[in-house]
Design brief:
This protein has helices spanning about 5-10, 10-55, 60-70, 75-80, 95-115, 120-150, 155-165, 170-215. By secondary structure, it is mostly helical. α2 packs antiparallel against α6 (about 120-150), α5 runs antiparallel to α8 and α6 packs antiparallel against α8 (about 170-215).
Length: about 220
């Protein structure tokens, strides 16, 4: 008996468990494929956008270049954040260096939330899918033993078949969980690498903007 036959012949609890595992698997694979594509593009975008920014003569010129290189909008929010003014409020209190630290931190957190989207789903599927499958196995074995006991004479072949069928749920839970756990770890390394590059760019950008503001360099300082 395969998984689909078990789903057709099972009761309501078995069907709920099986459908839950199916939804977990579909959801995790959608996230895996989408984030794998997104992070590959993001790594390339950050490298190209950073190089284009530092090769530009002014911030305005850099922003025009980012229209072509920064497809995932990872560096642009950081640059735009440094050009905002919050005079007359607590956000505008302190010197320019403190203001830049605050706005860059907030912008960086927003970008990182975009990169980390879906990681919670992968972690949840990886940690709960085996237990969902185990629930289906326990429930299947319980019903198998009930039907065997009502049959009267018990032999090994009558036990092995139903119990083996119930164990399919455990295998299904592991089949759902293992790709999610592996993807969570691999994608997490990609995110960490991109995050380190963005943090380095944010530090350099802060130093540039703070120095430019102090020197009053045209075309670089925030308006």
């Amino acid at each position: 008996m395969n998984f689909w036959e078990l789903l057709e012949q099972g009761d309501a609890v078995t069907r709920v468990v099986a459908l839950t595992l199916l939804l977990m698997s579909v959801g995790s694979w959608v996230v895996i494929l989408w984030k794998g594509w997104l992070l590959q593009r993001s790594r390339a975008d950050v490298a190209r956008s950073t190089a284009a920014f530092w090769q530009s003569a002014t911030v305005d010129e850099a922003l025009l270049k980012l229209d072509r290189f920064d497809r995932q909008e990872l560096l642009r929010p950081l640059i735009v954040a440094t050009r905002t003014q919050a005079s007359g409020t607590l956000a505008g209190a302190g010197d320019r260096s403190q203001q830049l630290t605050r706005v860059l931190r907030d912008a960086l957190h927003g970008v990182l939330r975009k990169l980390q989207f879906g990681q919670v789903l992968l972690a949840t599927v990886g940690s709960t899918a085996p237990f969902v499958g185990l629930l289906g196995t326990v429930w299947g074995i319980y019903h198998a033993l009930i039907s065997i006991s009502s049959a009267g004479q018990v032999t090994i072949d009558k036990i092995a078949g139903p119990v083996g069928e119930a164990l399919i749920m455990t295998a299904a839970g592991l089949a759902v969980a293992i790709p999610a756990v592996l993807a969570y770890n691999v994608l997490g390394r990609y995110i960490g690498s991109i995050e380190a590059d963005l943090e380095g760019f944010a530090r350099d950008l802060r130093e540039l903007m703070a120095h430019s503001t102090a020197q009053g360099a045209p075309g670089v300082a925030a308006p």
